Amino acid sequence: MAFEGLTNRLQNVFGKLRGKGKVSEDDVNEAMREVRLALLEADVNFKVVKDFIAKVKERAIGQETMKSFTPGMVIIDIVNKELTELMGGTQSKLAKSNKPPTVILMAGLQGAGKTTSSGKLAKMLLKDNHRPLLVACDIYRPAAIKQLQVLGEQIGAPVFTLGDQTSPVDIARSGLQHAKENGNDYVIIDTAGRLHIDEALMEELRQIHDVAKPDEVLLVVDAMTGQEAVNVAESFHGQLELTGVVLTKLDGDTRGGAALSVKAVTGCPIKFAATGEKIEPLEPFHPERMASRILGMGDMLSLIEKAQSSIDADKAAEMERKMRTAEFTFEDFLEQMEQVRKLGPIDQLMDMLPGMGKMKDMKNMKVDEKQITRVEAIVKSMTKDEKRKPEILNHSRRKRIATGSGTSVAEVNRLIKQFDDMRKMMKQFSSMMGPKGPKGGMK
Ligand code: GDP
Fold this sequence. Notes:
The chain is an alpha/beta fold. 57% of the residues lie in helices and 8% in strands. It has three domains: 4-86, Up-down Bundle (Four Helix Bundle (Hemerythrin (Met), subunit A)), CATH 1.20.120.140; 102-297, P-loop containing nucleotide triphosphate hydrolases (Rossmann fold), CATH 3.40.50.300; 313-433, Signal recognition particle, SRP54 subunit, M-domain (434 Repressor (Amino-terminal Domain), Orthogonal Bundle), CATH 1.10.260.30. The chain has helices spanning 4-18, 25-41, 46-60, 63-67, 71-86, 114-127, 144-155, 168-182, 199-212, 227-239, 257-266, 287-294, 300-310, 313-324, 330-342, 346-352, 360-363, 369-380, 384-388, 395-405, 409-433; strands at residues 102-108, 132-136, 159-160, 186-190, 216-222, 244-248, 270-273, 283-284. An eight-stranded mixed beta sheet has the order 3-2-4-1-5-6-7-8, sandwiched between helices. Strand 5, helix 10 and strand 6 form a beta-alpha-beta unit. The protein starts with a helix and ends in a 10-residue tail after the last helix. Guanosine-5'-diphosphate is lined by residues 108, 110-116, 193, 220, 248-249, 251-252, 274-277. This is Signal recognition particle protein. InterPro entries: AAA+_ATPase, P-loop_NTPase, Signal_recog_part_SRP54_M_sf, Signal_recog_particl_SRP54_hlx, Signal_recog_particle_SRP54_M, SRP, SRP54, SRP54_GTPase_dom.
C-alpha cells in the first residue's frame, strides 16, 4: 500500500518523542532530521521538504510546545497540520457550472489512467444522481474509443463518439451539443495522451479547450512515477491552465512523494485519488485524511463514511447506544462481526485504522469464514442468560458450551477473552467520546 515506508519511518520518529515529558531543542532538531530523510526517501521534492521542515521547526520550537505537558503530541499535531496544508489544506471540490452542462477536460500522458479515471468519474457522478456524458476524443490510440465504450456500458453512462476520422476538436464540439440536447449535466472529455509531452499534444488540447471552454481541466498523473508525475504536472500547468489533478495508482507500492509534492510545486490541488484497476467511483482527495493516514493515525473519517454507506444506520445507532450503556451482549458481538464483513477486505480496513500500519500480522490477517462460523456456533450454544451476562460463564458452563458447539474449551475461553477486551475498549472509548461525541479538537 502507498506510503507504507514513510508511515513506518514517521511512526518510529514520533514514537521516540511521544514518550517524553520534556522535549529539548536538540530533540526537535534530531526528529526533524529524521522526518526530512523519511520525506526525501518517499520521493518528496527536495525543495518542498526543505520548506516543510523549516515551517514545522519554527512552530515546534515555539514557546507553547516546550511548555506543554505532552510536547511530543504537540509536535505530531504540528506535522499533521503542516502535511495537510502541504496537500492543499481542505478538500478541493469538483466544479459545478451554474449553466449546465459542467464540462470536464481530462488530460494526461499515455498510460497514466486517463480513460479509466474518466469512467470512474462518470461512475461517481452517476452515484450522485447526475447524468454524465463521456466524449471520446482520443482518436489516435488504437482501441481507445472502444475502451471508453466498454467502460460506459459497464457503468451505464452514454459515450459520444464520431469514430477516429473526425478531428478531436469537432468531436468535442458535437459532444457538447449532444449533451445539451440530451439533458446531460456533466460532460467528461477523454483526450489523447502521448508518451511524452510534445507541442502537437498541447496544441490539440488548447484547441479543444477553446471550443469546450471547460469548467474543470483535470490532469491525470500516475503516482507510481513519483517525481516524474510532479514534473509532468508542472509542464502541463505551464501551458494549459489546470484546475486540478487526479492522482492514480495510489494502491500500488508508490512511495507517495507525488501526493505530497504536486500541490506545493504546481499550486494545483489534487482533487481525486484513484486506487485500483476496477471501475469504482473516483474518491475525492481529502488532504487532512491523507495526512493522518500518512502519520499512521488512520483514516477514521473515510472508514466512517464507508461504514455509513454499507451499514444499516438504525442498527448502528442501536449498537452504539448499547456500547455506551454496556448492554453489549454476545449476540450483538456476532451481529457486529457480520456488519464489519460487509465493509470489505479486512486488510484495506486495517490501513485506515490508527496504528495498524505497523501491525504486519494483523494486516495479513484474512477474515476466515470458518472461524466466524465457529464463533457463531459458540455463541449459539450459550443460554440467553449467558449471552447477556458473560461474567457468569464459569468453567463448567464453558465446558458445556465447548461440547455443544463442537469446539474446545480453549476456543471458548479465547472468545470470551476477546469479548471482554472489546468491552473494556468500548468503555474507554465511550468515556473518551462522552455522551455527545469526541471531546474537543479530536478529528
Ligand atoms: P490512459 O492511457 O491514460 O487512458 O490510461 P488507461 O486508463 O488506459 O490506464 C492504463 C493502465 O493503468 C490500465 O491498465 C489501467 O487498468 C491501469 N490503471 C488506471 N488507473 C489505475 C489505478 O488507480 N490503479 C491501478 N493499479 N491501475 C490503474
